[in-house]
Amino acid sequence: MANDTVARLNALLDFVLNASENAEIEAMDCNDHCEQMAALAERVAEGASLEEILPQLQYHMRYWVDCREEFLALVAVLKAEAQNFAS
Amino acid sequence: MPEQPTERSNEEWVAQLTNPETQAQALHDLRLRLQRSLLYYLAQERSDLRHLPPSEQEHLAQDFAQDATLRVLQNLSHFRGESRFTTWANKIAVRLAISELRRARYKDFSLDDLTTNGEFLSANTNLVGSAPPNPERAAEQENIRNVLRAAFQAALTPRQYQALVAVALENVPMDVVAAQLGTNRNALYKLIHDARKKLRAYLEEQGLSTDYLLKLFEAS
Q1: Which residues lie closer than 8 Å to A64 by C-beta, 6 or more apart?
Q2: Of A29, B25, B64, B65, which is least packed with CB atoms within 10 Å of its CB?
Q3: Are B217 and B141 in contact (CB under 8 A)?
Q4: Among B41, B184, B218, beta carbon nearest to A10
Q5: Partner residue facing B94 (CB), from A13, A39, A73
Q6: Is residue A8 assigned to a domain?
Q7: CB B169 to CB A80 under 8 A?
Q8: Which residues in A lie closer than 8 A to residue B130 (C-beta atoms)?
Q9: Which tens digit of pLDDT belongs to each residue from B8-20?
Q10: Which of B57, B76, B105 is the last residue of a domain?
């Protein structure tokens, strides 16, 4: 329990002190119709490294889990679509 | 054999979705395509939904695809062709599905349960004595926990407190928090950044550096 408390405090402090604050990335994450995120997911699904294309987004997704979940889900769908959804 | 949607270029999708003579068929194909993507996502990528019978997964995919198709149509004027049209549509569909699933999962959650007295920082367990190899460090952690509790109470508004604790500590999805605060994701980012800025200023005033704080609580 105590270790859990320490871990939670560590996570909270890390978020307060280090989480990404990048208006450009947040604008990409904030609406339905932004195409930049779609274009990036397309490139990652084709094998490009997000760390190389846009490291700021990689860093952003380390702290903002909603954005990460949606991006990774889209990449997974695009990869499956490229394989015609063959499992 | 399942019906296969017709392939189109970006220009063809936009033209056919905006032409009354071709719109119905284009919408049908788009919905079918999104349904296929969503079914894959729900059945293969969501471990929490694998227990659902296939018919229920299909039903969910159909509902989400229906809503997503309408949303694509509503946003069509924003499409610039930076990605494939179908990628853009899939982005809208995946985001819609994930948002709906989050809302369902947190339907009983209320931000009001996160009181503003900093109780999450006064855990039942006492840090002092809980780490026998280094009691001095545990005492230091306990001291900083008290500082943090004071910081949360002194520096943040109730709204900032709820947003920060929900997102950073309780991992509540931003959509859920934003909806309960009557705002959107963009404004929630700002609310949380403002809260973080106030806390950092408070901690700085106490002479506590980032390095010191992070090292104190990092896994030993």
Answers
A1: A19, A20, A29, B174
A2: B25
A3: yes
A4: B218
A5: A73
A6: no
A7: no
A8: 1-3
A9: 999 999 999 999 9
A10: B105
